[in-house]
Amino acid sequence: MKKAAWITTGFLLFIFGFSALVLSLVGVKISFLVWLDYPGALFGFLAKIFMIVAGIVVVYLTTTDWRAEE
Question: What is the DSSP string of the chain?
Fold first, then answer.
C-alpha cells in the first residue's frame, strides 16, 4: 500500500476507536462496531483501546523516515 493509504488507515482506526470509546461512556454505540461488545464489556473496551493504539502506531511508523534515522 502507498504511504497515504497507510496514514488514512491509521487515522481511521484512531478516530473510530476513540469515538466509539467516548460514545460508549454515554451509552451510544456505533452500529458497525456493536459486535465488539458481544463477548463482554471488557473485551469491547480493550478492543477499542487497541484500535486507538494501533492507529497511532501505524501513523507513526508510516511517517518515520527510516533512511534518515541511519
Answer: --HHHHHHHHHHHHHHHHHHHHHHHHT---GGGGGGGSS-HHHHHHHHHHHHHHHHHHHHHHH--HHHH-
